[in-house]
Task: structure prediction
Amino acid sequence: MNNKSFLKTSLLTGLALIAFAANSVLCRLALGNEAIDASSFTEIRLLSGAIALFIILSIKGSIKGSNKGASSKGSWTASFTLFLYAITFSYAYLSVDTGTGALILFGSVQITMIMLSLISGTRLHLIEWSGVFLAFTGLIYLILPNITTPSINGFILMTVSGISWGIYTLKGRGSKNPLMDTTYNFLRTIPFVTLLALFTMQNMSYSFEGIVLAIISGAITSGVGYTIWYVALGDLTSTQAAVIQLSVPVIAAIGGVIFVSELITIRLVISAIIVLSGILMVVLGKYYFTQKSAK
Result:
C-alpha cells in the first residue's frame, strides 16, 4: 500500500468509525429516552437507509452511466446479518447499559472476525496478538467503571449483534462496488423489516424525535457510513478491521466531550492512548511482516 492509498484508507476508516460511534449515540438517545420503541427504531433505520442509498445510487448511475464500473448486488447472507445486527442491537440496549453493551458488542465482533480469519488460514504474529490484547485492554479500562452484570437476555442479544456485525463486515471485504453492495444489502432487509412490523405493530410507540433520530441513524450514519466502511475494508485485513473497531467507544466518549460538554477525564485519555497503541501495533505489525516477506 503506497502513501496515497494509506492516507485514503485511514481517512475512510476514520469516517466510518465516527459513523459507528454516532449510531451508538443516536440509538441511546432514541431508546434510552423512550422516544421510540426498539422495533420501530430498527424498521425506520433500515428503511431510511435503503431509500437514501437507492436515491444516491440512482443519481450516481444517471451521472456516470449504469453500465460503467463493477456491478454487484450484495448478498442475502449479508442482508440477513445486517438485519439481525440491527434488531438485536436495538433490543439489547433496553436491558444492557452502555458500558457493558460496548464491551459485549465489540468483544464479540473482534472474536468473530479473528476466529473466522484464523479458520480461513490467516496467521497472526506475536506483535499483532499483542496489539489485539492491548487494544481490548484499553476498551475494558475505559468502560470499567460502568460495567454491570447484564441480564441473560441482554447478553445474548448483544452477543448475537456482535457476531452478526462481524460476519457482515467480513462479507464486505471483497466488495467491488461498495455503494451498490450496501444499497442492495439494505434493500434486501425490507422483507425482514415487513415481518418484524407485522409481529410488533401492536406495541408500536414513537414520537417525532424518535423518528428523526431513526432516520438520521439509517440514512446517514448507517447507510452512508456502512458504504464508506465497505470501501475502507478493501485495504484492511480482517484482524485490522476487527481491532480498529475497538476505538468506537473511545470516539463516542470524545464526541460526548465535544458535543455534550462532558469532562475530559484521565481515564479517557489513558484509554485512548492504550487503544490507539494497540491498533498501531496491529496495523504496523502487519505492514512490517508483509514488507519483510516481499523482500
Remarks:
- The radius of gyration is 19 Å.
- The first helix runs from residue 3 to 32.
